[in-house]
Amino acid sequence: MGAGYVGMSLGVLFGQDNQTTILELDQKKVNLINKQKSPVEDEEITKKLQSSNLNLSATLDPSPCLAQADYIVIAAPTNFDETTQSFDTSSVESILTLIADFNNFESLVVIKSTVPIGFTRSMQLKFRTENIVFSPEFLREGRALHDNLYPSRIIIGDSSKKSKDFTRLLKKASLDPVCQTLYMQSDEAEATKLFSNAFLAMRISFFNEVDNYAISKNLNAKNIIEGISHDPRIGNYYNNPSFGYGGYCLPKDTKQLSADFQNVPHNVIQACIDSNNARKSYIIEQICSLGYRSIGIFRLNMKKDSDNLRESSIIDIIHGLKKKNISIVIYEPSVAEDIFLGFDIIKNFQDFEEKVDLIVANRLEPILESVSHKVFTRDIFHSN
């Protein structure tokens, strides 16, 4: 249920060997899926839809697909509500109410949406069923199907026969049938998801602070990061500086986890949030210090190979530059709009490049090579 990255990758995964239906509220997405086109930007999902004989369809009608399903997977969004300091789980709860009406929880319901710790247990009590379980996803946007085909691990917050049968389906559909499966309590599975993303946010923040120091002391950040990363305890990966972590998961998950601690002693999680904000402010200062008055923003997406603009760090950079009264235009060919935050969007790169003195790019792409002399970036290793 849901045709985002998680729902689409799972739909394609299960559709290889099982009759699979995606329940979606957006008619445009339903039409695309039924025409074997992907509503999300993921090269492998697109290829599978076009080249494979998948048993996959999409619908707006909950009645037949919920009544006949053996397993129901919920992949609805849960944004962080700044007012309540918690995830907005209303979409998941609405789906659970639908399932109660059309299925009465005869099927196993697997929540893939990221939820607060304790949420699954509270839903079991609310709907008086043990057939609601939580299984976190660990997918990268743009590589969602790949990460389901080659999972790092499968975790489920339950150890019943139905849950074990579900994990066997996941393994059978993957190309790594020996990957580790971990069974635990639902609260522990929910915590695993949040702490995993918090660790990634911490790692990004750490290497961004290394880069901050290198900039301020006129040192070569690449040399320092490579020297650090060749320690096998640290690893030479996930160490490329950026304008700050962003996207759908890390910002909201760190905020939720920080709120969950309440009276429990903690410093690191909030420090990640503060560090990320400080990084974006420092990047804005660095751009402004160059003295250019006409600046081009190269792409609004969170990272390469993604169509997600949510919580993208470059958007905060735009807000900061806007306060400095700097002239801005944006290059973003993937959106239909012509204006973003009051600034023109240009979809032709040559027209864009000719209008600006400096191009600001969170991540480099080959099209920038010919104008590298006027690009500001901290993309040292040319990776996400």
Mean pLDDT: 94
CATH homologous superfamily annotation of the largest domain: NAD(P)-binding Rossmann-like Domain
CATH class categorisation of the largest domain: Alpha Beta
Succession of helices and strands = HEHHEHEEEHEHEHEHEHHHHEHEEEHEE
How far from one another are the termini? Answer: 28 Å
User: Total domains, how many?
Assistant: 2
Q: Write down the Rg.
A: 22 Å
- Poorly predicted regions are none
In CATH, the topology of the largest domain is named: Rossmann fold
* CATH architectural name of the largest domain: 3-Layer(aba) Sandwich
Number of strands: 15
**Strand residue percentage:** 5-15%
Q: Please, how many helices?
A: 14
Oligomer: single chain
Largest beta-sheet characterization: 6 strands, mixed
Helical amount = 40-55%
What structural class is derived from the secondary structure elements?
alpha/beta
Note the overall shape: globular
Strand order of the largest sheet: 12-13-11-10-14-15
